[in-house]
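Hello again,

I reread your note about wanting to compare the complex against the isolated chains. To keep things tidy I'm splitting this into two emails, and this first one only covers the full assembly. Below are the input lines as submitted, including protein chains and any nucleic acid or small-molecule components. They are followed by the predicted structure of everything together. The single-chain runs will come separately.
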Amino acid sequence: MQPHPGEAAIKVEKEANDFTGSSLASKLDNSLQEHIDVSSSTSSSSSSEDSSSETQDGDDHTNGDASKQLVLYNPSANGKGEIVPVPERVQFKRPPFGRYSGPNMQSRVLPSVGAFTVQCANCFKWRLIPTKEKYEEIRERVLENPFICEKAREWRPDISCDDPTDISQDGSRLWAIDKPNIAQPPPGWQRLLRIRGEGSTKFADVYYEAPSGKRLRSMVEIQKYLMEHPEYTNGVTLSQFSFQIPKPLQENYVRKRPPREKPSHDTSKPLEPSEVNPLAWAGPDNITDLQLGRPALPPPALEAPIYDHVPRPAKQARRTSKQMYSNAISIEHKFKADESSQSRNST
DNA sequence: GCCACCGGTGGC
DNA sequence: GCCACCGGTGGC
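Full-complex prediction:
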């Protein structure tokens, strides 16, 4: 398969009302959505906003009621007012598979999150956020304090809702919806998001890098670390950490878990025809919850489900007796977002 | 030996 | 289905 070269990415989007505290969700009926845009590789000069006809969907109202959305953006060098979406298209040659691409593949996979974007609550256009820090700051309060274009004046003096969107979901990137209101990491700490490759069992991983450089991957580890390092604990509390990961818009980006072992092979209840829903077969379950308020993406997503049996050659021996379902998509892109490389330059 | 990354489980 | 957690492993 050979997806289009310049389109390793996709936009991801979905309601954010599924983050744990559903309380929040309920309170904002206009689901906010954040997006994470991971630049993938490949060509395409993803100009910041090709409002080309391609997929005119990310821009404006990606979602009728989407009010705020965030996308991850890698500020690369500039980070000032200049917004270069997807700066580093690390020309990595798409490793066959993640890290198994051989010794010389530059740095593993791809860096990381390509851009941080937030959708204006008023005009619905996307505004690239210059730095991860700024993005985190905005994200921390999106719910109570929706983002609007005017706020971008902080780094782009003349920006307004009249300006075209900074970036559109043109299929050149992978988009993911971030969770709202995630606390900013404590001073000295970094919250890192690593996007996994397509077909993995999870979309991403969050790590916190402590002031000491130690990386922690769960609340349990954080807690333990804090206890063992009182020197970094000044006012740091667990509430400042969140391991919530964004959701990819691309359906099937993440491999689904096979149904759990049914305990009792239940045959007791014959299915009613209606339950079977003979028509259902046609319904690829994509689309489902991402109603973008528009016809659906021209889907790069459609090329996803390819059931070839090449489940990422990883730790093969690791399988239990369950089967291996693999809908490993032949991924075209193996990117990895990486914020760790981001330098702060906002303030 | 370390660690980044991936897989998978258990609980809800 | 999602989330939290963490074991294992390959690569360095």
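For quick reference: The helical segments of chain A are 22-27, 132-141, 219-228, 273-276.

B.
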